[in-house]
Amino acid sequence: MNRVYYGKVGGGKTYCVMFQEIIPALRAGRKVITNIDKLNLPELRNYIGKDIDITVRQSLKWWQESLTCDVEDDGVEGRAVLNPALSDNALYVIDEAQFIWDARQFKDTKSGFLHLLEYNRHFGVDLVFITQNVKRCDVNISRLANDSYQIKNLGFLHGFTKNRFAVNRRQTPFDKDVIAQYTRRYDSVIFTLFRSGVDVNAVKQKGRFSSTVVSAFIIFAIICLGVLFSQGNPVKAIAKTAENKKGVTTNANSPVNFLGIAPAAINQSGDAKNLKSGQSLSPTNTLSVKLQDVPCKRIGYIEANGSVWEIERCGDVIETYRNRKLVKTVTSPAGSALAEGGKSPSRDLVSNTNNSNTLKEN
């Protein structure tokens, strides 16, 4: 099978190949041939936990001449013959493949390498190519790839993703459709097995505690803001309601809680709408006034000698006003009303005052 891993410098391509290709192959007992620079073979052996069969080849010429396959035809049948330098059931990992099969130098793919790309699966041979730019490599590497993995380091986005990388899997690097997509976290132990372009120190020092605490704090702040503003700005609503009530004075310095709601005693001031307009309710005497919802009804008024007399019944209380000033209050269960001096403003009394006087009843 042919697989291609590509991405920017320091994106984690070699890291992904290590844990996804090389380590599983070594654990399965397969032979691995690679040109990855400065592999830590003793540490890799300890990580696998058993003897491993891995060979490092740094010669570009060896790779160009060895990765070939010939097709022999004796006139009866044709068969593919693997290069003697290659091993059956082996994994070949080629890092920086654009240096070996440069598209600018290989105008025509050599038949031996092309045959290997087409017949390698019959020998159990897997070819893994690592490159920064697939367009720099021979086009047949991308065209005949069975799987392609685009590796992206997510550290440039934010500190929360500094230890993570994304993998986009396609059949070929030039396919627009993504077969699978997943993200993984860097393991600092893997970086001890080889030399990597990823910032290893940042991966080792980055902890999970900071991101967890910050995430929890952000979620808590969002919940608090949601509860506060779900009431539709309660501070403004309470102030507007108080302004619309007549006969009630509000104190801008009155205490409110963190939701902008005043204490219960202050909220009762809304019942003061039944008080007379001549009376005032200040913040100092709000708590000492006992408010009752007693309906008042004007039962008549008199105009005499330039004065306006009004009589109102509030339950069992008869109140007499002269020019809108309270002059007399009498409790009379029988319902009699007394004017100034204790006299009742009856029809007979009104008729003897002045011809211009009038009596009106509601």
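Next protein, fold it too.
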Amino acid sequence: MDLPALLSVNESFYPHEGGAEKRAFETLVRLARKGFEVKVLTNPFPDHTNIPGIEIEYVTDMNESQYFKKGSRKILGVHKFASRLKAKLKEEQNADIYMFDEFPLLPALKGASVLPAEKLKFFTWHEVLGDFYRRNGILWKIAERWERKAASVFTNNIAVSSTVASMIESRYNVPGVSVVENGVNVRELDNQNQKNWGKIIYIGRIEPHKRVDQLITTIGKVPGVELEVIGTGSQLNHIRQVANSFSNVKVTGHLPRSQVVEKLKESWLFAMPSNREGFSIASLEAMAASVPVITIAGQYNLAANEVIKDGRNGIIAKSFDDMSSEIEKLYRDETAWKNLSQNAHEFSLRYDWEVITERLSKILSSSW
């Protein structure tokens, strides 16, 4: 059976770290193994790489500092990527399916504008942030308009969760949104061995909306536990300064993937303090390692309830103070922790990347 040729547009790609990058890498590698022809157009962050089965073309020569800024992106960098992408896609008209990632919106809109109307164009939604954009000033309102336009331009929409799909359908009156969740490599992370009791871990980007500084000041005051923070980002130096005040907090920074996995496997609890989160891959990875997740409820924390089920595979706290109280209670209740740990692992099995990619493969093939 012939399979379609795919062209995927991603602002950054493996080995750059991030949930969207992880999703693109894991699914595209598996689609290539299935026989799809796969090409990626992206930026060279952090450097050029070779991946068997995938052709990667870098459409700019920018480095990360020219594109990213604290917690966001530089508008000039986004415009440069969008402009170069638009020019490239005028030449790249032979793919059967074009796949665009949501962020940062403008490249997808510019790229799609030069493709023939009959070409299949898919758009992956990680979040729906129109209200957030509107509340954050004039420049952010531009992003709101881009988001609204994306909802009208793309007729093939994929959401990373049923919550996001419902938001697209209700806010923008877009019917028929497919749901293909994020996934996890269960085989890599599977570990039900003894944990380091009281060891809490954070793995992810160090950006303002992740609220790692507040996590440190919260857990730093909880007796008996320790916190390790793994990751990089614009606030890394800031959180290192914050952590200096607490003897039970360690900021490791970036580590190779193999070391991250080993540290996750030995942890007792995974903390996810972000106030803006989609279908959290980091939380799924923790669960695959039989590590329950604690997070904080919030309007834009879509992982709460969608991935993290309060009292079943994790804990959804009401605030940082409540998080502190819940950690103290769990520390004293081994039976409750074991139930959370077992349920977390069982939950992760539904989202193995092989299962997720098979679902995506069927959607792409049936549309062609």
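About the second fold: The mean pLDDT is 95.
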